[in-house]
What does this fold into?
Amino acid sequence: MGDRAVSFYGRSRGWTVSILLLSLGGGGGNILRSLKALFRRDLLVTQKSDPKYAERLKRAICTRFIDTNEFSLSDVPRDERLLIGARTTGRLGARHNPEVARQALEESKSEVDALLSGYSVVIVIGTGGKGTGAGTMFPVVQMARQHKCLVIPIFVRPSFERHEVDKRRFDHALSVIDQFDKAQIRFIEILNDLGYADRHPEPQSVVWERMTLPIARGLRGLIYVLSDLSQVDPSDLSTLVAGPGRIRIGFAEIDPPASQDPDGQQIEDAVRTCWQNSYYAFGKPVGTSLVCIQGEWSNVVDAGIKGRLAALASGDADGHPYTPLYARAPRTPKPWGVTALFAEYTGNHAPLAIDWNLEGRISPLVGSEISTHEIAARVFEDVPPKVPVVVHDVGPTVHHKDEPKPSFASLWEFAVAVNRSDLSPVSKGVIRDIAHVLAKYPFVKIDLEGHTDSRGSVAYNRALSERRVNAVKAALVAAGVDSAHISTSFAGKEKLLTAERNTRDLALNRRVEFSYFDAEGKPIATEKQTEDLQIEAPKPAPAKKATPKTTP
It folds into this structure.
């Protein structure tokens, strides 16, 4: 890459926070599938009424499914899968063994760590007892905490009495819960035991749907708040998740007639439904809590919802620790209602240190500069700011036209320069810049295509282009780009840009091209620049022989 700097500016937006919805194993994946289906429907509805807001939500939220079993991910889009521990498990799962799942996570720790580093809020969903979720839940949450993310773990405790798991697996699930308590990490604990009713026996699939739908509905409401911090003070959210204890989530739908406020009975029923959720472990008084109201009605209705929830939480007693945080999501599509995140009161705790990373999200990359050979010509609302799309990684760095160009001391020195597949320090620096930008836009996919000039055989140049591409990919992954988002191809000398009439033409052909694609697979258009080519020095002209003098 050359040394030309290009300034680029992003459009000013609201305080948008990046949210990662992450499932661990099959049980967590099922809950995330429900949530994703609801959110996709919301996006389609919102797209018709407010396209810009829909795109903003789409940018803010990312879903990832982590598993040890490749077959469990077969219905998940490729860019949303993260298969861990391929060598440890043979891609066939953790064999219902949490320890194998933990080893698989250790094998793929760098990839998971790179994924977590790109988000401010991480919601982790897993089930205990049977394998991947049980073995990876606590260590993944710890990794997210190390990145100073606001983490909301959702852990499903399996039922031993209902024979969902044997005693050994049930005890392991209890040990995971104990790890959270000892580390003083708040989490949502769901009790599968409470999903069964002896008087009305039901298939397990029906029980699961009844238990997971409120979770998905509740998270849906929270997403609208967490994706836009103008609705709530970030320091309050940092306090809500601080300290040990449990969290429970509630949701209730409110569907008044068109252009009318809900009546008193609708408000009362909704508040009680939101408050009463029998599936959670939650035994202490309610402390700091987040209440999100969604609906187009008067502030009188809002006041009624707040008052009734406060009465239930405090029991009308003085000195109760209930401390509500209120937020509104006015543009949320139907179904409207109220979502609440209630936290147990376990004392007063200092707010957690959360890296909200707001600066880059208020006005992405304002006034920053990077070295580039090729930049995006136009930027859609759901793609990243302008970033380099070509790496020229061979030959000496280009000099200004007024400076003397380098020469090679020998044929060997020339051959080494032309056949390089390593990256120069300048190239590595620019790749780090690219990775920094892409961390804010994790849905973007990259295709790398390697090229050479025409010198050498077809087979040799194809192998050389492969080495060059792999060097660039390794640098991107080392800088934090998700390897699952990078595809590669190797053209060798099959796609020359020029006829190679001079050394500049040769330099144009030696390249690794970056192609960027948005979340829907649409390419991001680019425009060419050639100021940073690395051009080998021209061969010196042969010295003219001196003309012998003749004597008269």
